[in-house]
Every structure is written in C-alpha cells, then in structure tokens.
Amino acid sequence: MNKRLASISAIVVMLEACSAVGPGFANHPADCAIGIAWADCLPGTKGYANGGGSLHRKEAADVAKAQHDALDAQFEAVRKQCDADMATSDLDPLREKIQFSRKLDSPPPFHYASLDSFPAPADRLLIAKWAPLRDACIEREHAVNTIPPNATPLDESFIRQEMSFGSESEAKVSELVVSLCEQKLTFGEFARRRYAIGKAAVDAVSRGANAAGPRASAAGSADCESAIRQ
User: Domain spans of the chain?
Assistant: First the structure.
C-alpha cells in the first residue's frame, strides 16, 4: 500500500513539473535558456526575449491592469470627495471666476483666461474659503499609495519622480492662490499662469517617461493626470 501511494505521489509530482504548453518541464528551462520561444518561458530568459513567455506576459498584464484599476478607483473616490466639498453654494460666485477642477495641461476656457479684473473684497473672502478645501484635496491625493507592491527599484524611482513634478506644480499654484488673494494677480493672469505651471509638469513627466523607457512609463501611469487637481 505504501509503495502504491509513493508511486502515485511520484506521478503527481512529475505531472506538476511538466509544461502545460508542450513536452518538457514547466517553463522549459533548458530550451528557454538557449532561446527557444516557448509560451511558458520565464522573464529574463533568451526564449522570453525572443517572443516567448506569452503566459507570463498575460499574467503580468492582468496584474498591472488590476493595480491600475484599483489606483484609479482610489483617485476617483478622492475626486468625488473634493467635488462634494466644493459643491457648497457659498462658492458659486467664485466658481464663475476660477476653475475648481481641471486637468493639468488643459488650457483654460476663454472666459477664465480673459477675466481682466482683480478680486474684490467679497472674492478674497471666498478665495480664503476655497484654498483650504483645495489643500485638503491635495492631502487626500498624497495619502494614496501609488507604488505597486511588485514595483522594481527603477519603477519606484520613476513613479516618485513623476509625483514630485506634480507636488512641485501644486506648490507653485498654491503661491499663485496667495497672490490672487492679495490682489497681485487678475483672475485671467491666475488662470494663464496656472495652466503654464501644469503644462510644464506634464511635459516634464513625458520627457522622463521617454528617457526611462516603456517599462517605467507603464509603471508610472498611475499618474499625474489621475492624481493631481490644481
């Protein structure tokens, strides 16, 4: 009986060690090492480099998509909270003069860019009320962990650099908010300078992605655009 169980166990082990995509051991270590492109070649082997490894590529793609979707969901929750906070009717007069929600590199509509007036005393009070809400949104965004669990040191370095561009951009816009509140800028100047700051940040991220290559670019696509609302 013991011999029979041992035989069955040996067969199970052998079956588990066999490849599911063709004759040979799982992941075809010998063939993949010399460049034969089996579908189960592991990353880092010549076979994988030659176009094999489709099974592992799909697994990696599925994991990356799940991580990206989870990150998007967190930023979407932050966005909805920010929208809810800023939906107060008290801010409606200011909403006609400042875009509360925008993409970093989206040019301001003509209405905002051409508004050639300094804040009135009533506007300054509303700016002072809006600014802390904006700061709270940024703090919630920064609380989201954008580093995937399986990120390589290169991935992590790229993502942190990408987010640093956004943080620097946010800080510069915060300075603009202060200048606007102090009547040193018109609403139109604020909109145009804010756009220039955001576009410079997005351009910097794009240059970094091109220099780092497709892997870092994909890892960092958790992104400036999803994360930052100025």
Answer: 2-49, 67-227
